[in-house]
Amino acid sequence: MISPPAILGMLGGGQLGRFFVIAAHELGYRVMVLDPDPGSPAGRIADEHLVAQYDDEAALQKMAASCAAVTTEFENVPSATLAYLARHMPVSPAAECVAIAQHRIREKTFLRDHGFPIGPFAVIESAADLDAVPPTFFPAVLKVARFGYDGKGQVRVSSLDEARAAFAGFQGEPCVLEKFLPLSCEVSVVLARNREGDARCFPLAENQHRAGILDVSIVPARVPSALAAEAASLALSLAESLGYVGVMAVEFFVSEGRLLVNEIAPRPHNSGHYTLDACAVSQFEQQVRVLTGLPLGETAAHSAAVMVNLLGDVWLQEGKSAEPAWQKILQVPALKLHLYGKFEARAGRKMGHFTVLGRQLDATLDAALKARTAIGVADDSGR
Fold it and tell me: Which residues are CB-contacts of 255 (< 8 A; sequence separation ≥ 6)?
């Protein structure tokens, strides 16, 4: 076990890293953040912020000399960086796991080869690969293999000609073409797994998206209990197959009553933000616990919870930038507001979130959506 006040390393300075720093501080640890942005949300509250690129040799040497263990808040950290640091200290997740999750082709291939349920897909590494795709595969979604997130790097295509045009627009980047499926809903499991192989899942979240970005997470997910149990079982099996150590999220499609794995996130996840308020131990504290060898904490939710993302658009209404009228939503007694400390509001940028807690899910969801409307976000959730 790594005891406080040891220094823990965090690769990445966004809001996920910020919540990790807070959780680590509460347990008595110090944190060194590596992020190239001098104003990064995590870097600004860390004990030390290394303002450098993720492959900067001097910065990595300093982390290796100072930190007792290192983790990450996003999957696009170079796997070589994780491998280098792992020669000096415990690193979770491992470079091998990140390398799979950060590349859609490797990810889909791993899932298929290990027998996990996934939708039909085709690997597109050249224009010629599209010629082998049958017309019945469309409509579909073309996704770049790397650096796609929050709806970026993907295009819906209804024909082979549209797929060719989209692939050309990605300038020949390797892609995955996924057949469009009828969806009942999307759900996700956030879990933590330690070095001894012990693992715990947080309750299943039901997720609604807007323009490819997570909008609302509803907990517990409104699905049959058997399907929720199956999602947890599949997520645990996937973590075991990867030999995963750390916190991870597994996103699923629910299509015609069947679970299909969509993506793996080798880190805490936006859909797990509700754990900050609805669980005794959050996903971020679990990340600290796994990294330092502390026992895993309780994952059961003590309340129903609805998490609402707050994007920069809320700040940019009526053609001007202004701080939203938070008093309108803080009138809800069971609402917890979390702002990420980002200086500049931009359309589509995650600036914060709020979570409403309650005993009855329907009433909790109603209160959350009314609060969202009160600060100027139209309600098109379908509830």
Answer: 119, 181, 182, 183, 184
Calpha distance 354→281 (Å, rounded): 18
Number of other CB atoms surrounding residue 261 within 10 Å: 21
Longest Cα separation, the chain:
60
Q: List the one residue out of 150, 156, 217 whose CA is nearest residue 185.
A: 217
Question: What is the spatial distance between Cα 100 and Cα 111, in angstroms, rounded to a whole number?
Answer: 10
Q: What is the DSSP letter of 314?
A: G
Strand, helix or coil at 125? Answer: coil
Q: Coil, helix or strand for 277? A: helix
Using CA atoms, how far apart are residues 205 and 322, in angstroms rounded to an integer?
31
Handedness of CA 159, 164, 165, 166 (dihedral sign): positive
CA distance 219 to 355: 11
Q: Output the pLDDT for position 112.
A: 97
The pLDDT tens digits of the residues spanning 331-340 come to 999 999 999 9
Residue 279 forms beta bridges with which residues?
301
Successive 10-residue mean pLDDT values, the chain, 383 residues: 98 98 98 97 98 97 98 90 95 93 94 97 94 94 81 86 93 93 96 97 97 95 98 98 98 97 96 98 98 98 98 88 93 97 93 98 97 85 53
Long-range contacts of 362-370 (CB under 8 A, 24+ apart): 364/303, 364/304, 364/305, 364/306, 364/334, 365/218, 365/306, 367/306, 367/332, 367/334, 367/335, 368/216, 368/306, 368/307, 368/308, 368/335, 369/216, 369/306, 369/308
For residue 150, the model assigns a pLDDT of 56
Cβ-based neighbours of 318, under 8 Å, separated by 6 or more: none
In the DSSP assignment, the letter for residue 232 is H
- What is the DSSP track for 94-113? -HHHHHHHT-HHHHHHHHHH
pTM of the model: 0.94
